[in-house]
Specification:
This protein has about 575 residues and is an alpha/beta fold. It contains 18 helices and 14 strands. The strands form four sheets. The chain has an eight-stranded parallel β-sheet. A two-stranded antiparallel ribbon has the order 2-3. The chain is globular.
Length: about 575
């Protein structure tokens, strides 16, 4: 990753922060005794304006730590294959991407953490995140391409693989299923959660899982041969592919989950966060036969084993540390599973291993279960609403949160700032469900009560449009609902840079499609008279976008977004 500055945190910053400690002390007590929090993620490896900006954002936040409308900050993301030797005081193999020289940002980050927590803001470090859960070859084969060609992301195989999974190779990042070409990722950008064979705490976790599954039809089957940094040959296809992530932990015989707790202890954070999203694992190791439904017990076992490993390591090495987890929106939903997500994983984990869910949600170590109730779609062509009457964002969020309540799993609602990552903005813009200011108000009123918790992704993510909720508004709204009357809820999120302009509403859709180079052979017929095209109300498109795209050759004129007159004598579609 690009180099960033490595100077030590100035003592003056810490001294300046001391002035806000007294004002924050009463709020600090409330945020640390398990009665609720307002959580915001900070992606410290994020780049803006052509350079990494993690230090800039942490600088700005710590200087205002006593007044920001947030009581917990998640530093994201550590790699699931991290290596950390206790007492080494380096982030060299942590995967955070904050720095790449010296101690890789350890001392400076520890200073920020101390400053935050002195001002009443807990700090957690999060392990995982989407890229650190994605195995490109397996995700392409079994998730995107594993259920026929009528699935939400199959367009990637059509666009980059010529319509065949065999066209998804290392040369095109397996049809760019994990990240689009614009992200300039390589196999080194990704990782999986490993199964660290022959390490004591992992073996103990496996034994625990086996005992809990003793009466289950499908017993645990471990996949310790899928080692990050190596090549794995899939016995189902005979195809070999590189396993993403660093293999250093395996070479040194270390356990990344133990090392994660040791890192947390040396940084003196309040807690650690597990962000597990291995869709590929659920789809590759599903049980059942086509056309489904299937079962995903192996992923339930793997997730639960990781939680158990972290739990016992905390109890042994850092007893005051809290543990939280991100959870899928569908994670507590019972019923048939048709693949492509982590439906029911947290429900089944609670049924088999209730003490794990209890550790996350009750008692001194409880960091909470944070439900990712975002990146949802209303595309009923792929049955993406819980039911046809629950398609708006607030209806879907309320539905998914109700499944956690029904399962008796205490859980916290989540929000995403700006444009969602899913569905794809260019391929299915019209079915995106971004967080509008109205939806924020409705979701908060339904799902956040006094003393409760909620979180959002991410503190410096672009708002995109004026009708969408900004990070600051989301934080203030959560805070006001969870801690009514607190002065902190009127605070602001400082921006270390001049604010970017925010676009109009509705948020802009995809730009004009560029005309591809003319293929060899006879020239195409000239176009007829241009049509006059208009945006369909409520589609999110504009008249200008429709006019330009519908009159391209070839045309890009979605029928659900644009309507044109019949003036042309040439067929564009």
């Amino acid at each position: 990753r690009p180099a960033v500055r490595t100077c030590e945190m100035k003592l003056a910053v810490l001294l300046g922060l001391a002035a806000v400690v007294a004002a924050a002390s009463s709020f600090a007590t409330r945020s640390r005794d398990g009665t609720g929090f307002v959580g915001g993620y900070v992606l410290v490896s994020r780049s803006s304006r052509g350079r990494p900006v993690g230090y800039d954002e942490l600088d700005a936040l710590t200087k205002a730590a006593g007044t920001i409308p947030v009581t917990r900050i998640y530093i994201s993301f550590a790699s699931p294959t991290l290596v950390y030797v206790p007492g080494s005081n380096t982030l060299a193999n942590a995967g955070l991407g904050l720095d790449n020289t010296g101690d890789f940002g350890f001392a400076k980050l520890k200073g920020y953490i101390a400053a935050f927590q002195s001002a009443g803001v807990e700090v957690f470090i999060s392990m995982g995140g989407w890229n650190y859960n994605c195995y490109p070859a397996m995700y392409a084969e079994y998730s995107v391409g594993g259920y026929g060609d009528h699935t939400p992301n199959y367009w990637k195989i059509q666009k980059y693989g010529g319509g065949s999974i065999s066209g998804c190779t290392a040369d095109n990042q397996w049809c760019y299923v994990c990240e689009p070409p614009s992200e300039n990722t390589t196999i080194d950008s990704f990782s999986i959660f490993p199964e660290p064979a022959k390490t004591a705490s992992w073996e103990a976790a496996k034994d625990y899982i086996a005992k809990g599954a003793s009466g289950a039809t499908n017993q645990p089957v471990w996949n310790e041969d899928i080692v990050p940094g190596s090549t794995w040959t899939d016995p189902l296809t005979g195809q070999s592919s590189p396993v993403p992530g660093s293999g250093l932990f395996a070479k040194q015989g270390r356990n990344p989950y133990d090392d994660f707790v040791s890192l947390a202890k040396d940084l003196q954070v309040a807690g650690i966060d597990l962000d597990y999203e291995e869709f590929w694992h659920a789809d590759r190791f599903k049980i059942g036969s086509a056309p489904g439904p299937w079962e995903l017990p192996q992923t339930v076992y793997k997730y639960s084993a990781i939680v158990r490993n972290l739990m016992t390591s905390i109890q042994t090495n850092y007893p005051t540390c809290k543990l939280s987890t991100a959870a899928a929106a569908v994670g507590a939903w019972s019923g048939s599973w048709w693949g492509g997500n982590l439906k029911g994983v947290w429900l089944q984990s609670k049924q088999l291993y209730p003490d794990l869910i209890d550790f996350l949600t009750t008692g001194a170590n409880a960091g909470g279960i944070n439900v990712m109730t975002y990146d949802l779609s209303k595309n009923e062509n792929f049955h993406e609403c819980p039911d046809p009457t629950d398609c708006p964002l607030e209806a879907q969020v309320n539905f998914y949160m109700s499944t956690y309540a029904t399962a008796n799993i205490p859980a916290n609602v989540g929000f995403e700032i700006g444009r969602p990552a899913y569905p794809d903005v260019d391929e299915d813009f019209n079915d995106q469900l971004p967080l509008t200011t109205d939806a924020l108000t409705a979701i908060a009123a339904k799902n956040i009560q006094a003393g409760k918790s909620a979180f959002f992704w991410e503190m410096y993510k672009d708002q995109n449009a004026t009708c969408l909720a900004s990070a600051q508004l989301v934080a203030q709204t959560i805070c006001a609902a969870a801690f009514p009357g607190s002065a902190r809820c009127n605070g602001t999120i400082p921006d270390p840079f001049p604010a970017d302009p925010v676009g109009p509403c509705p948020p802009p859709g995809p730009g004009p499609s560029p005309a591809p180079p003319a293929p060899p052979g006879p020239a195409p017929p000239p176009p007829g008279p241009a049509r006059t095209c208009h945006a369909i109300p409520g589609s999110g498109a504009t008249d200008e976008w429709c006019d330009e795209n519908c009159n391209h050759v070839p045309s890009n004129c979605p029928a659900n977004m644009c309507k044109c007159d019949s003036a042309s004598t040439h067929t564009f579609l």
